[in-house]
Amino acid sequence: MLSSQADLLLTTARLTIAPLSDHDVDAFTGYRQDPDVARYQSWGIDYSRADAERLVDDQRDRHVPSPGNWLQLAVRETSSGGLLGDLALHRLDDQPDTFEVGITLARSSQGQGVASEALIALLDFLFDHEHAHRVVAFCDSRNNPVARLLARAGFRQESRQVDADWFKGEWTTLDGHALLASERDRAHR
Ligand SMILES: CC(C)(COP(=O)(O)OP(=O)(O)OC[C@H]1O[C@@H](n2cnc3c(N)ncnc32)[C@H](O)[C@@H]1OP(=O)(O)O)[C@@H](O)C(=O)NCCC(=O)NCCS
């Protein structure tokens, strides 16, 4: 795995992870418009190319985010350069040693271990390089693929807010998952 102080750049056996760029806009818009991909996410299938361009333009800072900010990372297949999905990285404003992560893959890239490979690379970077204390993730309780992914990566479910979120026309239940540096160290031993 590689990282630098400048652009965030991670590599794994199959993947290159770097800030989303202008080149990713078409593929990014394409999978954000897929109803299966958008179902439990904050955007809808009306997500447009202009929305994607704005997102890329708004993140000219390509470093690890400062407190309160987000960075959207492209997950690319190294051999082809194609965009497979993305990771969202948020550094909490009031707890700057805590990061929140989110992950999305195009449907054609799911079921191959790509999300696990990308998420574990990001966790390794956050804990080993950024000395993160805690990494958290939140998801709809019906989103079983992401719950399985987070469990595989070592997260522990620590909260369930029942019918707490009015989302896309219905009350939804929000699960919180977390992984502490100390838990990860124990798991590695
Ligand atoms: C959440 C999401 C990223 C998970 O993707 P995923 O493809 O299931 O996760 P992985 O890439 O780790 O693949 C794991 C699956 O591939 C299988 N697999 C196949 N080859 C594999 C390999 N070489 N290594 C690991 N797993 C492999 C595993 O058995 C596993 O299947 P299972 O979950 O049915 O047991 C994906 O469902 C997604 O993008 N959903 C839409 C967006 C979304 O809701 N994101 C979450 C917001 S909180």
Describe the 3D structure.
The protein is α+β, with helices and mostly antiparallel strands. It has one domain (10-188): Aminopeptidase. It contains six helices and eight strands, in the order ββαααβββαβαββα. A hairpin with a 6-residue loop joins strand 4 (83-91) and strand 5. The longest helix has 15 residues, at 114-128. The structure holds coenzyme A. Residues 37, 40-41, 102-105, 110-116, 139, 143, 145-146, 148-149 line the site of coenzyme A.
What is the secondary structure topology, with strand pairs?
Layout: E1 10-11, E2 15-19, H1 25-32, H2 35-38, H3 49-57, E3 70-77, E4 83-91, E5 98-105, H4 114-128, E6 134-140, H5 144-152, E7 156-167, E8 170-180, H6 181-188
Parallel strand pairs: 5-6
Antiparallel strand pairs: 1-2, 2-3, 3-4, 4-5, 6-8, 7-8
Bound molecules: coenzyme A.
DSSP strand count: 8
Count of individual helical segments = 6
In the residues, how many domains can be counted? 1
The poorly predicted ranges are none
Cofactors and ligands? coenzyme A
Mind summarizing the main beta sheet?
8 strands, mixed
Sequence of strands across the biggest β-sheet: 1-2-3-4-5-6-8-7
How many angstroms separate the termini? 20 Å
- How large is the share of residues in beta strands? 25-35%
Task: Determine Rg (CA atoms, Å).
Answer: 16 Å
